[in-house]
Design goal:
The protein is α+β, with helices and mostly antiparallel strands and 368 residues long. The protein has eight helices and 21 strands. The strands form four sheets. The chain has a six-stranded mixed β-sheet, sandwiched between helices. A six-stranded antiparallel barrel has the order 11-12-13-21-20-14. The chain has a five-stranded antiparallel β-sheet with strand order 15-19-16-17-18, with no helix packed on it. The protein is globular and about 70 Å long.
Length: 368
């Protein structure tokens, strides 16, 4: 449906987005995720038709929309947009705000579509309310309904939920996803919040310094990141050292990792492996001990930052019924199903592996 191919964008000779490529299928929701200033909003504006590329193309449903030579006007792209600033028309009631994009349609058709969207967004009966009488969440729902009213082929949302408090975002984001799926409408959300991106999108592109590091499903980004930046931006975790023993085994403080299909790391070389909090659980059956350094209560569970005997640190999850205090020593049971290995350049490779043995301490069995 949407195809971004080697898109490069910039101003005054400075490149802001470099060689961006991804595709989005019809009815699919995507997200551009990254820190402030990484180029994600510029990329969104180029998709909307507000920026001319320095290189590459934007296509939708097989039709070229943007090249360095020509740009189809935004109003001819069948694209809707929603911004952080909802920008409702203050002199129009809710119903007329939503109907604004339906000008030219028969009045009866406008009313049906407005009523349909009010019901979908849980705002039935709000048609005659004025924008100033609405809460922030209600105003954002009206802005989304207005953008969706003409049934655009693609809806673009630029930090659309960042002005809402965290509790409201947890409610409205999955609600908007449900409505987009009901409408079978493709969409792209720009955000700096990975929880928001994961809750909304089928595909997420992680950006930094104008480049898309990885475009993939949220599960893949979290468990199989292709770079250190992706690994550290989309979730918590620690990087610990591992040393190659031979072409199939690496040793870390957690034990010996047997790589099923083998690896290309030369014996004796030290690399880093990613360990997520959910890769380590508190279990009395384990021989690996760690001292609790920090404690974070998450309601359903505790998250402990633990220090091992070689000063490596690991995050660990424990049931909330198991209450410990800083300084306690706890047993850590590794449950790594994927071994994500980073080389000196920060490039990640994921292997299927099995953790064969545990080491009680590094002093008992030091690295080779």
């Amino acid at each position: 449906m949407l195809a971004i191919d080697s898109l490069t964008l910039g101003y005054g000779g400075k490149v802001v987005v470099a060689d961006a490529s991804f595709t989005l299928a019809a009815g699919e929701i995507g997200s551009l995720l990254g820190p402030s200033g990484c180029g994600k909003s510029t990329l969104l504006r180029a998709i909307a038709g507000f920026e001319r590329p320095l290189g590459g193309t934007v296509s939708m449903s097989g039709a070229l929309l943007s090249t360095p030579e020509t740009v189809v006007e935004p109003e001819r792209r069948q694209i809707g947009m929603v911004f952080q600033d909802v920008a409702l028309f203050p002199h129009l009631d809710v119903g007329r705000n939503i109907a604004f994009g339906l000008r030219g349609a028969a009045k009866a058709a406008q009313r049906r579509r407005v009523d349909e969207l009010l019901a979908l967004f849980g705002l039935a009966g709000y048609g005659e309310r004025m924008p100033h009488s609405l809460s922030g969440g209600e105003q954002q729902r009206v802005a989304l309904a207005r953008a969706m009213a003409p049934k655009p082929a693609l809806l673009l949302m630029d930090e659309a939920f960042s002005s809402l408090d965290a509790e409201l975002r947890q409610t409205i984001v999955p609600e908007v996803r449900r409505i987009l799926k009901h409408e079978n409408m493709s969409a792209i959300l720009v955000t700096h919040d990975h929880d928001e991106a994961f809750a909304m999108a089928d595909q997420v592109g992680v950006m930094d310094a104008g480049r898309i590091h990885q475009w993939d499903e949220p599960y893949v980004l979290y468990h199989l990141p292709n770079s250190k930046f992706v690994a550290q931006f989309v979730g918590e975790g620690q990087l610990i050292q591992a040393t190659a023993i031979d072409e199939r085994r690496l040793r870390s403080v957690l034990g010996i990792h047997s790589v099923h299909a083998g690896h290309s790391i030369e014996p004796g070389r030290t690399v880093e492996i990613l360990v997520r909090p959910d890769d380590i659980v508190h279990d009395h059956a384990s021989e690996i001990m760690g001292e609790i350094v920090e404690i974070s209560f998450r309601g359903s569970h505790y998250q402990y930052l633990t220090a091992l005997e070689n000063d490596e640190r690991l995050l660990c999850i424990a049931e909330s019924h198991h209450k410990h205090t800083a300084g306690d020593r706890v047993e850590l049971l590794p449950k790594l199903e994927h071994l994500v290995v980073f080389d000196d350049a920060g490039v990640g490779t994921t292997y299927d592996s099995t953790l064969d043995t545990f080491l009680r301490t590094l002093s008992a069995k030091p690295f080779p």
